[in-house]
């Protein structure tokens, strides 16, 4: 089997250990087979191809625990719910997967999305028909008719956009089973949702209903991720058996205690809000939502830090898939937020985005660290991310990327232009009143 030696780099292995200078990594096929002096020795006898990476950092490929690869970067719920056709969305998702890969992401969890494209894309990548990171995928997010973050775009029954409405416990069981048959690795539940005339998100599932979903999913060997913006929703989801809490916004003492007791993984997925808050105006975003991030961080950040200190796995997800979080640009951003707002060291944040994130994929011991026997997902870059984690967002620093042992072409994929009818096209930005016309 052809061997490849990454020779003499500084290794950040993803376990939380500090950088180790002059540490080679030997790859054979899709595996890391040796690290350090053992790698150098084996390469001499084995006749490996040698790549000199001295002066560069060698680390695990990034893992993104929260992506929506099928949404196609909508700028509004109107686009997301009314302007996405299955076949076109699938082709665009294949393009998006390559962009994610070139951002140094060698595997990701597609938490939910349109139609059954997620599992289909996962399988297309696995069989070599499409180039992309290794995927785990869900399909539609389960909602009650008042659920979701799209108000009245959520129908009373059936599917719309990324939503599938379940009306009673029998239907919850039926839909979970069908999603598993359709290839889902995970079930996503929107435990809180928004409706137009109420502020924030309200809990729209009971603990008993969540338990029905969790029990059915677990019986079939798949995990459950619960979207919770609210304290009681987080508590009820944990007690019902959810495996991952997404957001955990405004979590209180009881929910924190349950999270620590059950060691349920939590992914705040702050990147969307952080981007809106910091860079929104550059993208023409309205400023009314900018305070949301500050408020949510103040109330949630301290609790998440306590959870992290108590041993709760903290997952790193980017929410890539929207116009504020386009594919291939923001997969390292959550680490910056962890450093800035939760007080993690850059090295701790890197560990979240590599070995800890393997939990989201159910692939602990397979990916996320540079150790003999692990899959050869390796990023080589200029600079030391253990001093400044933000450099992981700068693709111009990347020198080599291995995904499943294969070298990835780092020349950027050409950007695409919008498909016909993909974008909402207003007749005007404001109403053309008589006064405006004559002003
Ligand atoms: Zn999401």
Automatic annotation (TrEMBL):
Pfam families: Amidohydro_1 (PF01979). One of its GO terms (molecular function) is hydrolase activity, acting on carbon-nitrogen (but not peptide) bonds. Gene3D superfamilies: Metal-dependent hydrolases, Urease, subunit C, domain 1. Residues 57-407 form the Amidohydrolase-related domain. InterPro entries: Amidohydro-rel, Metal-dep_hydrolase_composite, Metal_Hydrolase, Metallo-dep_Hydrolase, OTAase-like. This is Unannotated protein. It comes from freshwater metagenome.
